[in-house]
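fyi for ur records
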Amino acid sequence: MINWIPVRKGLYFLVGAAVLFAAAAALKKPGKPVKVEIPPGLSAAQTAVLLKKDGVIGSTTLFRIASKLLRADRSLKPGLYYFHASMPLFEVLRRLEKGSDGIRVLVPEGFSARQIAERLQANGVCPARDFLRYAEKNRLEGYLFPSTYYFDANEAPAEVATRMTQEFQARMAPLYENASPKPSLSLAQAIILASIVQREAYLKSEGPMIAGVYLNRLKLRMRLQADPTVQYALGYWKQELTAQDLKIDSPYNTYVHYGLPPGPICNPGANALAAVLHPADTKDLYFVANDKGGHIFSETNAEQNAAKEEVRKSEERDRAEGRAKFR
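which gave:
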């Protein structure tokens, strides 16, 4: 039978210690300013470790107890915060419940450096021109990891880009390094191909198939003939490419040049890289977009032509049905 008296005494001691710690901290002068970013998805315990590491709090245990007692452990918000070293514990919790001091910016998978630059400017983080110049100078296309970030207003482009490349190193580099079997492509080559897969695979489930097709074409020294590479060469994601577009004079045009383009065409997410590292086991060499958001995959050119004809007829039927509705 459990003796609850020592348990209660221990609980009362911890609660009392938390209150005394907070009261004592409140009498202290504010310490040095500390800038802390709390990533999305962290638990109260993980948040406590991060705050302790940066000197904001003195005890992870007291933080967890206080957050639990105040029922704040499930309402701590991610973001960028400006604290002081050794801040009062309850003030830290209040700030974390209230929300971030920074500007929240969502960078979607498949955004190019230009699109990221435009979004940063639209949110008041930094001028698009300055960020794009820095990204191009340092060849960061493909390495600006897509995620949710919190920035200062008027933050230096170099700092913004560094945050994104650090996230790339934390999330993408281990995927490549721990891949089994060992990839035949270098990390740089894998990121280039992942960027193409990212732009092609509207359905994430098709990523491994699309990667498998492109890897097969590379092995057979066939041109990739990837539409997104032409769109990148044009400077924007044009929906319907013309025959003239496919002839554009650019090293990124995989309708003209063999092999991979000279660099990534966007900033891919982890799923796209995983598709390249673990492609589908397929003999297919072609695919064409259908009218349902996916693709039809084919092994031969004849099958590909038949698939194109099937898509064309399906689109005609859809248009005819659409016209019939308005008669």
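Residues 133 and 157 are 9 Å apart (CA to CA). thats all i got for now
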